[in-house]
Design brief:
Shape: globular
CATH architecture: 3-Layer(aba) Sandwich
CATH class: Alpha Beta
Number of strands: 6
Distance between the termini: 22 Å
Helix content: 25-40%
Largest sheet: 4 strands, parallel
CATH topology: Rossmann fold
Strand content: 15-25%
Strand order of the largest sheet: 5-2-1-6
Structural class: alpha/beta
Length: 101
């Protein structure tokens, strides 16, 4: 089973690292799981809200069995999403709709 995790600048660290660790352990235990960090705009490095740099691959929705989208995009002390995270979420939903069409 291939799992793609969509990450973006400002993603919450635990929303990325926690599932990645669990799924990675399942893969190393021989359960047939592979997990990749991907971004909508091709391979590059994203930076989480905590400052963790993460190299990503490009997203290929037709190749993934499971898709996980990291949460986050909130500024410290704010309750509204940062505009860049909101825009990335919109782009992701549009890309997903096109991939399913």
């Amino acid at each position: 089973m291939r799992v793609d995790m969509v990450v973006f600048d400002g993603a919450d660290d635990l929303d990325v690292v926690g599932p990645y660790e669990v799924l990675g352990l399942a893969g190393r235990a021989g359960l047939g799981v592979t997990v990749r960090l991907v971004s909508l705009d091709g391979p590059h490095t994203v930076t989480t809200a905590g400052g963790l740099p993460l190299p990503t691959g490009g997203w290929a929705p037709q190749e993934a069995d499971v898709l996980i989208v990291a949460g986050g995009g909130y500024a410290k002390g704010r309750t509204q999403r940062l505009p860049i995270a909101e825009n990335q979420l919109r782009c992701f939903l549009m890309a997903l709709a096109l991939a399913r069409a």
